[in-house]
Amino acid sequence: MLTIRPGRVTAVLERHQGLVRIEVDGTPCVAYPGQTGPVALGDEVLVNTQARELELGTGGFDVLYANLTRGLGGSPTRGAHVMKLPYTPLQHAVLHGEEGAALAEGLAGMPVVCCSLHSQVVPVCAGLGEGHRVAYVQLPGGALPVSLSDALRVLRARGLVQTAIAVGACVEGDVQCVTAASALLWAAARHYDALVCAIGPGIVGTGTSFGHGGVAAAEAANAATALGGSPVVAVRASLADERERHRTASHHTRAVLELCLGSVSVAWPRGWDAPEWLEPRVVEVDVAGWERACAGLPLWHMGRGPQDDPLFFAASYAAGRLARGRTA
């Protein structure tokens, strides 16, 4: 069951497009005004507190569920009829990119970088570099709201990402698409140079081989292969993670590759030793200067920065560099 509590907004801390960070009765909370309406100091609200009560790490914060003061009586988006989060208490109609818009017939070799974690997106985009039109495609498997990502806001400001597409249950994108395949074709029709696919911040995980959000990378890779794209898998790699299943190349990457039905390229940073099971698909990439290319960008993974776990960021950067070499 949902864990819902009433409260009052006691502080408004930050306002961003699609996201407001507030406090409700002194406790940190996130609000999505596109879902629940505008929010202001003193509003009476209902808050979902379950993640915080379960102490779910970085995802353990409250989320505004309804604004009783100014969030009632909203109207559906004009002309929209395809539902996001259908048949749930949060269902709402949103215009989708497939509706009345041209889709490409194929990807014509467009590089599609497939990430299993959101924290890979920043170094991947740094590897792609400036001067390319890049679309970010968010897949279910982590946070659903695109607007939760502070990293994506920085990438936009630096010109490393031009648009964000929310796929399936994901919300708050510049464009909404029903499937990963149609998201890729929507971007191809608008002549983007490269696509970066990932789940949102956080990850759904059970500790099992396939019961985690990272398998979304395989969905993206398979769609890219079927549509004539050039899929590049960004390896989740680490020499600092204490969990054996995530050391060197993570079992998440192994699961992704086992689910890929076609030929994919697996980027690996030159100078580090790849595990034997990964080597048959590895394309070694020169990542010299990756720290300089990522300077000023928010590099953070599981509480570790680039000095703590350089392989994680170098491996992701390698995927972006490999994709850059395949741009038209």
Please provide the ordered H/E string of secondary-structure elements.
EEEHEHEEEEHEHEEHEHEEEHEEHH
Given the helix and strand composition, which structural class is it?
Answer: alpha/beta
Number of domains as seen in the coordinates: 2
Strand order of the largest sheet: 11-10-9-12-8-13-16-17
Distance between the termini: 50 Å
Give the strand content. 15-25%
Total strand segments:
17
Give the biggest beta sheet. Answer: 8 strands, parallel
Oligomer: single chain
Whole-angstrom Rg: 20 Å
Detail the poorly predicted runs: none
So what's the overall shape? globular
Number of helices: 9
Mean pLDDT: 93
Helix content: 10-25%
List the helices and strands and how they pair.
Layout: E1 4-16, E2 19-24, E3 27-31, H1 33-36, E4 44-48, H2 50-53, E5 62-67, E6 83-84, E7 92-93, E8 111-114, H3 121-128, E9 134-139, H4 150-157, E10 163-167, E11 175-177, H5 180-189, E12 194-199, H6 216-226, E13 230-234, E14 237-238, E15 248-249, H7 251-259, E16 265-269, E17 282-285, H8 290-293, H9 310-324
Parallel strand pairs: 3-5, 8-12, 8-13, 9-10, 9-12, 10-11, 13-16, 16-17
Antiparallel strand pairs: 1-2, 1-4, 2-3, 4-5, 6-7, 14-15
Helix pairs in contact: 3-9, 6-7
